[in-house]
Design goal:
With about 210 residues, the chain is α/β, with parallel strands linked by helices. It is built from 9 helices and 4 strands, in the order αβααβαβααβααα. The chain has helices spanning about 20-30, 45-65, 70, 85-95, 115-125, 130-135, 155-165, 175-180, 185-190; strands at about 40, 75-80, 95-100, 140.
């Protein structure tokens, strides 16, 4: 579900797989029963729906405990299309985002490919943003969504795409930032940062050395 029409289908903005009131109710119910929530969204209107649901659940939790999403770890999965307003709301709520930089290496996301044709150059060029989230101190995780067609099991694919700015100079990040998204940020996203995600005594680790 997109906020604006698909370029090739005037009047069509897609649709939600689940209705917003149901999503809000299930999110709040999960939080009230001590669960975290990770929900997948691609379209910006889908993400807007989830952010609204998360905001309400976090508000309930804060009134109940005095704590926020630093405890809950509510997470948005994929977060492919976002607006500046959504980024601000995500930052204020402390919501975690997961993105797939390697998706930009797929045929669907290639210049002139299906996504650009459906959404237009501006929305396509801003898809899969990373740096705007990091600049707002949002915790960003990397993933690959393997074995989906846009997924690459090798993390080097996403590292390569991210440090190249996904082809967009404004979105370039450092290798250190990219590695953090794959390690300690990922651990934080599942409340596991005390057990893994960084090289420290007492933590679990699989170590891979690159040149």
């Amino acid at each position: 579900a997109m906020i604006e029409d698909y370029c090739c289908m005037p009047g069509n903005r897609g649709y939600h797989l689940y209705p917003p009131d149901w999503v809000e109710a299930q999110t709040l119910k999960a939080v009230q029963h001590g669960w975290s929530v990770c929900a997948h969204s691609t379209g910006d209107r889908d993400t807007e729906m989830l952010v609204s649901a998360y905001e309400k659940a976090i508000d309930w939790y804060r009134r109940k405990t005095g704590r926020g999403n630093e405890d809950l770890r509510l997470r948005l999965e994929h977060t492919m299309f976002v607006t500046d307003e959504l980024i601000e709301r995500i930052a204020r709520a402390g919501i975690i985002v997961n993105v797939r930089p390697c998706g930009r290496l797929s045929a669907g996301d290639a210049p002139g490919g299906p996504h650009q044709k459906m959404l237009g150059f501006e929305r396509w060029s801003k898809s899969r943003a990373i740096r705007p989230f990091l600049e707002k101190n949002i915790s960003v995780n990397f993933g690959c969504d393997y074995p989906a067609p846009c997924g690459f099991l090798d993390p080097c694919a996403s590292l390569f795409a991210a440090v190249g700015g996904l082809g967009e100079p404004w979105d370039v990040i450092t290798m250190e930032q990219a590695l953090a998204c794959y390690t300690i940020n990922g651990a934080y996203g599942v409340a596991g940062e005390r057990s893994f995600g960084s090289i420290e005594p007492g933590k679990f680790a699989d170590l891979v050395v690159y040149n």
